[in-house]
Amino acid sequence: MSAEAQILTVVGAYLALSLFVGWRAARSASDSATGFVAGDRSMGPVLMYFVTGATIFSAFAFLGAPGRAFSTGAAAFHILAFGVLGFLPFYWTGPAAARLGRRKGYITQAELVAGELGFRPLAPVMAVVSLLAFVPYLALQMRGAGHVLEVLTSGAMSVEVGAAVVYGVVLLYVWHSGVMGVGWTNTLQGLFMMVMAWSLGLYLPRALHGSVGEMFQAIDPEFLRLPGNAAQAGERWSWLGYGSSVFVMAAGFSFWPHLFQKAFAARSEGVIRRTVVLYPTFQLFLLPILLIGFAAVGFEPAPEQADQVLPHLLLQLDLPALLIGLFCAGALAASMSSGDAILHSAASILVRDGWIVGAKRSLSPEAERRAVRWMLLPILVISYVTAVSFHEDLVGLLSYAYGPMGQLAPPVLAALFWKRATGIAALLGLLLGSATTLAWPHLMPPSDLHPGLPGLAVNAAVIVVVSLMTARRT
Amino acid sequence: MALRHLLLLIYLFVAVLSLTGLLFRDISTADGLVLGLPAGLAWVTGWAALTPFVMWAYMRTEPEDADVADGGGES
Q1: At a CB cut-off of 8 Å and minimum separation 6, what does A199 contact?
Q2: Residue A224 to residue A290: CA distance in whole angstroms
């Protein structure tokens, strides 16, 4: 059997196992929309830990993070830094949302905000903002999966075919089992990618440099000194760019709708709090991922693209095909564990926030579940087309997606914790904050400042000022 | 404000300033390796390792009848 055939056999076995686990998960939820979207609000601590952890660690973590370490050095530490802080707001927002969800039937973030502020138009607007971020993010996961398969099969499987095969499997188990399929496959994928990341992160520095310490000693100290290099070759990143990037990405982290939505799936508020407490342990999984990128510094031949560092090293080291296949499956697990949650969340947001809340159409629980299933298809197709036609690097694509996401934080916080907040204020804050974020790089002098920071400031200020000037609808 | 809230607030404030580079920049940019890692990476990893313990302590001191804020209002 050729090396490519062995790799594809391992990958095929992994995909079959994911499909099996995801398909069987349908047994653990009812046939209702709440069962399909929120798992009947029954997820326990293990499922919550892996579903939140693995959802966040995506193709970006497995491919983009080593690529960033390889190309920008210490600048890559910001990926670990924003993750340390990013999930903490969920300790307070998660239980508050879960309680309201149980009492009022909410199953999406936008539905909660619109309902609490008594202002329906917020739901479709938030849905649009979410989808604008979801499509590039899902495209990123698809391209990561296709990328890995193409490189490790020496081009025998193209990016397009690889992405289609992997996401065909994802579509099947999400279609059949909904959020419980996402949850149980994420548990499998989370365990698998942690084992693979630590194995690789310890093995590669040792194989190439003798040890982790010797590896770092061989690298230029300036390259390893914060804030590291900018994405543009040869330039240093500024502390303004580093600090504002950490802040904005941390601020938006727990407000990604597909992650926030898991608050409605948790069995209890205690489960959510324990998940947040344990969450940074999942974050430590990024450490070996960064070591992989540093192991490639100075390696000859250098990879053509930074995102290809990991598969490039694996092929150059002449490892057994079985092992390469396992590592390949680990990278696919990272891609799928985020892609499935985004796909499922995007479909439920379209139906619940766009159609039911926004357009005021009522659907029976069965019809709603059916509609969410059918919405999976157009979202998958649009993301796939984006994936095969967009050629930014993975981190660039992720940064674009994080821009609008951070803007969801002020309206959600206002809806949960500020009784004086009004719906029109939240809507204006969201729109003006997003507009500021998008316009900032074009209107202001060139700067490293993350445009999401002025966007957040405008968003929060507008919510406070307009809320004080208007009355809430009852 | 209860002491547990105040202590957590201080911890989070210092963590945010440290991880964004506004505080302790000398430590995070020091020369040499710390436990085999560059100072900046060891610094960030240290925060990731410490935070679960701090949050665990905060959770353990939660009063039995503690209630989270319940929505901004009725619709």
Answers
A1: none
A2: 12
pLDDT digits (tens, 9 = 90+) for B33-42: 999 999 999 9
End-to-end CA distance of chain B: 30
CA distance A412 to chain B (A): 10
The ipTM estimated for the assembled molecules is 0.87
**Closest residue by Cα to residue A204 from A130, A315, A106, A127:** A315
Residue A405 CA to residue A256 CA, distance in Å, equals 6
Instruction: Note whether B48 and A284 are within 8 A (CB).
Output: yes
- Mutation site, B37, B60, B67, interface A, largest A CB count within 10 A: B37
Q: How far apart are CA B51 and CA B42, in angstroms?
A: 14
C-beta of residue A37 within 8 angstroms of C-beta of residue A351: no
Identify whether A288 is preceded by a cis peptide bond (ω within 30 of 0). Answer: no
Nearest to A140 by CA among A161, A168, A159: A159
Tokens of A400: 């674009």
| Residue whose entry in the numeric block shows the structure tokens 């709708």 | A257
pLDDT at B69: 42
Q: Are B72 and A247 in contact (CB < 8 Å)?
A: no
pLDDT confidence bin for A156, thresholds 50/70/90: confident
In degrees and rounded to multiples of 5, residue A236 shows phi and psi of -85, 145
Residues of chain B contacting A242 with CB distance shorter than 8 Å: 20-21
pLDDT tens digits, one per residue of A107-117: 999 999 999 99
| Residues 6 or more apart in contact with residue A398 via CB below 8 angstroms | A60, A64, A137, A140
Query: A266 to chain B, minimum CA–CA distance in Å?
Result: 15
